[in-house]
Write a structure and sequence with these properties.
Blueprint (H helix, E strand, L loop, with lengths): L1 E5 L3 H16 L6 E6 L3 H11 L3 E3 L2 H6 L5 E4 L6 H10 L3 E4 L7 H14 L4 E3 L7 H11 L6 E11 L20 H4 L2 H11 L2 E9 L10 E8 L4 E7 L1 E13 L2 E7 L8 E5 L5 H13 L11 H13 L8 H20 L3 E2 L8 H4 L19
Length: 379
């Protein structure tokens, strides 16, 4: 199974390292990193030299014709993802795409239809935080009733991006990045929240452009209710000098907390049992000790933790653990945050459907602030 990476930017190195690790230590010698494609020939060549890849170039079709694209990892700007996935699926290749997979719910539904029409190749989106042992453990203990019922949650992505970060032409625009920190940054953490608490039912939100010269928001805040009745606050910021990604879930039996930045280990989790439920902390600790022997993820979230079971499924001819339908609720939550923030009205699950402006674009009817005028960005 030959793998090609499309786009040689920073995140592509995480993909390359994970694919190499899978083939070296996870017993999946059939998986081979065989190609890298980037619009910058020199960057592709440098990436190939660093990761020991034979084929490098600037044209995806050349890589497909060379037979090195059984799986395509898409690590390009979000506006390119749908067309690039279409090309790969038409060639019979599986697709692993960075998030956000596409720019809108309309594009996600189009991607799902492309996968159905291809009748064989699979599409999976990177949602690596779902696969760390701590998240797996938390979902299991909630499902088994060991933690009781979830009640209250906070989910904060407090990151910092200076003005220079947005000098890259495709950043800070709804038509190319899809949105601001809600769509491109906080989505990592609130995807984890959704994977733990399940289906959400209602959103009330605010968003603002407070300090950056962009078309999108640079901060958003939302109150989210889930079908279980649990309520969560979600904050997404690119204006926070002390950076942290945090998740807290209060249940009837315990408080479970996670504090990290771009990826977590078991040591980043903390469990505080409620009075009378002290055994919860003991069972969590026992599970940590048992998981520590896993030779693949070694207690960490990350691309390796997701790509190992993904490639095992693809080699077996099975669906990967995360498909297009599995991530739709997260993308719909992002759309609901924008719709509520820009219209001032609450949003109910499944309310954003074809014909709604926020189905076609996260920008929907337009942000309540004026677009920036920046000739350097072409806008």
């Amino acid at each position: 199974m030959k793998v090609t990476i499309l786009g040689a930017g920073a995140i592509a190195h995480a993909h390359a390292d994970a694919v190499h690790e899978i083939s070296r230590t996870a017993g999946l010698e059939e998986v081979e990193l065989a190609g890298i494609v980037d619009i910058d020939a020199a960057r592709a060549a440098g990436f190939a030299a660093r990761h020991g890849i034979d084929l490098h170039g600037t044209d995806l079709r050349t890589a497909i014709d060379a037979g090195v694209v059984d799986v395509l990892h898409i690590c390009t700007p979000p506006a390119l993802h749908l067309d690039q996935a279409r090309t790969a699926l038409a060639a019979g290749a599986h697709v692993v795409v960075e998030k956000p997979a596409v720019l809108s719910l309309a594009e996600l539904d189009a991607l799902a239809e492309l996968e159905r029409s291809a009748a064989g190749p699979r599409v999976t989106q990177v949602v690596q935080h779902r696969f760390g042992p701590g998240a797996v453990r938390l979902r299991r203990m909630l499902a088994d009733g060991e933690l009781g019922r979830p009640l209250v949650a906070t989910c904060d992505t407090m990151w910092f991006r200076p003005p220079a970060y947005f000098e890259v032409p495709w950043r800070g625009r709804f038509d190319t990045e899809g949105g601001g920190p809600t769509m491109g940054h906080g989505i990592h953490q609130f995807d984890l929240l959704v994977s733990i608490l399940g289906e959400w039912t209602e959103v009330r939100a605010m968003a603002g452009r407070l300090a950056r010269h962009v078309d999108t928001e640079d901060v958003s805040m939302a109150m989210v209710q889930f079908s279980s009745g649990a309520m969560a606050s979600v904050t997404n910021s690119l204006l926070s000098p002390r950076q942290t990604s945090s998740l807290r879930i209060d249940t009837t039996h315990a408080t479970v907390e996670l504090d990290h930045l771009y990826g977590y280990e078991d040591s980043h989790w903390r469990v505080t049992p409620a009075e009378g439920h002290e055994d919860v902390a003991d069972r969590w600790a026992e599970s940590v000790a048992a998981d520590a022997v896993d030779p693949v993820d070694q207690g960490r979230s990350g691309h390796l933790a997701q790509l190992d079971p993904t490639y095992r499924a693809l080699l077996a001819g099975e669906a990967p653990p995360v498909g297009v339908a599995d991530v739709r609720g997260t993308l719909e939550l992002a759309a609901a945050i924008y719709r509520s923030a820009f219209t001032g009205a609450p949003v109910i699950r499944d309310e954003i459907s074809p014909g709604d402006p926020f189905y076609e674009s996260m920008g929907g009817t337009g942000a309540p602030w004026a677009p920036v005028k920046d000739t350097a960005k072409g806008i």
